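User: Um, what's this?
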Amino acid sequence: MPACLGTDRTGALEFRMLTKDRIEDALTVQQHSMRQECIAIGMGMYEDPGAPEEMQLVFREVIKDGCTVIAVDRSDRVVAVAFNKLHATYCLYIYLYYIHILRHVPPQPEETDPLGLFIESNIKHRSCRDLIEFIDDIESRVDVFGKYNARGAMEIFYIGTDPKCQERGIGLEITQKSLEVARGLRARKLKQICVADKIVNEYVRPEVAFAVAASIFSQRIMEKLDFETLAEVRYEDYIRGGKKMSDRIGNVHKTATLTARKL
């Protein structure tokens, strides 16, 4: 499968599936852009020495699903990334468990939630764990699988644009490309890209896409792409590290929303 997913409207950017050789470039964009990310700010991640570096371990796990998307400019520089994560219902994971047996491969129960187990074992900084728990809390408020009668889903886990390239609509376009990838995986017209020893969630076929939109900018993107708002929380209602999240974030971005749409 070619890694190229097409270009933007002007032809100045090319969208690609993330491959092994661009992992560090994608993580550099994540590192720079996350300093502006509301939940990270609200949790005091940049007041917690070593936390931003530890958070990168989570992104290195997310990319193992093989469906992360990058935007590359004409100089072949990565300027944006959408870290995408696949999820399945419990019933589908049971089905995949038995595929191991039929193929005479020792089943590994931990594969039911490899990211969750990785986080539990490796993520120790308070702000990192608070961030993940905050996202989990929002996502648990609505059963996305039940609402959309889906067995598989793609979570648009994080979208980051190089601060030098913002306000050009790249966030919207890379989200659109992520939806195209999800549809391609569902229709089996695209294949995941292996960036580690193996592809995680290789058999999951997404039928719905969802995301936690943490700023007014990401919320506008989801509205333009016909995502439905399923739940909303206010930053002023959460205290982490001795402060309200809203005290760190400011008055512009007031809520985080769980959004989703059928593919």
In short: Residues 61 and 115 are 7 Å apart (CA to CA). The chain has one domain: 4-262. Confidence is low (pLDDT under 50) at residues 91-111.
